[in-house]
Structure prediction request, 239 residues.
Amino acid sequence: MEWVVLIIVVVLIFFAFKYWPITLAIIAVGIGIYVMQRINKKEEAKEEARKRAEEEENRKRREYDTKQQNVHNNLLTCVTTSVTTFESLPGKISSAERDLDKAEEEFSDGAFAPFWDAVENAVTNLALFDQGIKEILSHHDQYKQRKQELDSEPPIFKLNIKTLPDASGTADRLKGIVRKAQKNFHFSTIYEQRKTNQILVRGFQNLGQALGEMTYRIESSMNDLSQSFSDSISYLATS
Prediction:
């Protein structure tokens, strides 16, 4: 078997030398095909790398756009929620004032339970007012932190503080009415029974704590709000 292979090799060499022009042509064509294949593979590798780089760039761009949109939506939520809350605050004070009017009326009539019902309603409305301001301040802090992440103009955060009623005056009025009632034995007796009643507003455990801390909390919240906003129209979107 080996001698057959040897004969074939010798014959091929013979014909290669005898017909060397054809042999050179075949070799040249083979080399050309090999070179072209190498060039094509390099081009294909470059194209594949370019596509991967383009896909990665597109992915990063989509992630960036999504993050920017999420930040913008978050800032817009802070603004719209705060404006809605702010616009509801005068109504809380108006309701508290009406409750205090009712309390004074019930006190004059000597109606013990209705008097303290009206006081509890007034306390609840003042507590909701205080809670509203704290929510605005929380949104304000979140707005200031997250607007740094936005590469475009953030939504404007503005509130007209001058339209806000003086809630501390209502809190003082509440304190005076309660103090007057506590000097009356019958009214103070009912208060002792009710002072542990829960006030269903976050931050106040019961009626007694709310009455004891309401004025301070209202003044503190109003002061924090005035420091965050100017006396007229404040723009929190300034850099």
About this structure: Confidence is low (pLDDT under 50) at residues 231-239. The helical segments are 2-18, 20-109, 112-146, 167-182, 185-194, 207-228. The radius of gyration is 41 Å. The longest helix spans residues 20-109.
